[in-house]
Amino acid sequence: QIGFNHLCDLPCIKLQFGNASAVISLYGGQVLSYVPKAEEEVLWLSPKATWHNNTPIRGGVPVCWPWFGPADSRLNPMQMSLPNHGVVRTMLWQLTEQRCNNKYTRVVLAVTVNGLPYHSDSVTLQLTVTLSDTLSIDIACADKLLQQVALHSYFNIPKLEQTLVQPLPQHYLDKVSGKSMMGTTTTAEFTSEVDRIYQQPADDIHIISANTRVHIKQHGHDATIVWNPWQDKSRHINDLADNNYLEFVCVETARLQLDTAAPLQLNQTLIADY
Ligand code: TA6
Question: Which of 53, 59, 92, 192 is surrounded by the fewest CB atoms within 10 Å?
Fold first, then answer.
């Protein structure tokens, strides 16, 4: 089990369904833990994570909205200094609905954002977390403003050097070199820093590490991001301890295209096979 001692003052909701459980933080609207069976933690949470001083929680499933990474110039016309990955990671969300029956346990959280630099109205974003024999996370926004979204999931892995993410498109944008790349396989492996954006990936992706396998089903996405900071980058990240990079990979379900009129509706479902 992950230790929450360092986040003991964080307002959280715990979901239970049979032997499965999940923990969701109201700060960030962020799933922090998913245990499908006794003692098997699917998600990774940094032992140095904090939620004070406007810091996003490092780990679990952060919600990046309404931009991913630094804000695109269309989302930041005044060239203001804006936080990486949007504004809702450091906001307090409200619990708006809860439901429990013999098929699932579900909660709905919402956050209303005012004063985006390119949009004058207030906008509400809704997160639905459904725990059954899987963990399903839905993010939705009825407003048709320009927006990107990513579920920036951190997965707990037993052995980084034996971890594979597949299948992925061969073509990707490599954020480490800033170049567009054509790989030779449909698998991502981790032998140095990895920070890649894969466009138009499959709906089903697997993370295989030693004897564990997590199946990610995704909908409403147009990109998958795969990230591990490796040793050097980790040293510059305050809320990561030196060797923490060996314990996680991020595999993120995202909608990054701004030229779409479709309402925002993104889903990531996690199925663990341990
Ligand atoms: O999704 C990968 C990424 O955009 C990386 O470039 C890396 O910076 C990471 O997210 C973490 O960002 P954060 O703002 O949480 O430190």
Answer: 53
Atom of ligand 1 nearest to the CA of 69: 4
206 CB less than 6 Å from ligand 1?
no
Quick: pLDDT tens for 253-274. 999 999 888 899 999 999 998 7
Q: Tell the residue nearest (CA) to atom 10 of ligand 1.
A: 69
CB neighbourhood size of 219 (10 A): 13
Tell me, yes or no, if the pTM score tops 0.90: yes
The domain segmentation of the chain, as residue ranges, is 5-273
State the alpha helices, DSSP H only, in the chain: 230-235
CA dist 252 and 274 (Å) reads 21
Give alpha helix (H) positions in 184-247. Answer: 230-235
Give the total residue count for the chain: 274
Complex ipTM more than 0.95, yes or no: yes
Nearest atom (ligand 1) to Cα of 68: 4
User: Which among 249, 246, 245 is positioned nearest to 214, based on CA atoms?
Assistant: 249
Dist CA 202 CA 167 (whole Å): 7
Fold of 5-273: Beta-galactosidase; Chain A, domain 5 (2.70.98)
Interatomic CA distance for residues 206 and 75, integer angstroms: 32
Cβ 257 vs Cβ 222: under 8 Å: yes
> How far is Cα 37 from Cα 274, in angstroms, rounded to an integer?
9
What tokens were used for 61? 């499933």
From atom 13 of ligand 1, which residue's Cα is the shortest distance away?
A: 84
Q: Which residues pair with 227 in a beta bridge?
A: 195, 250
Contacts of 5 (CB under 8 A, 6+ apart): none
Question: Is the distance from the beta carbon of residue 85 to the nearest atom of ligand 1 less than 6 Å?
Answer: yes
| Chain segment 122-140, per-residue pLDDT in tens | 999 999 999 999 999 999 9
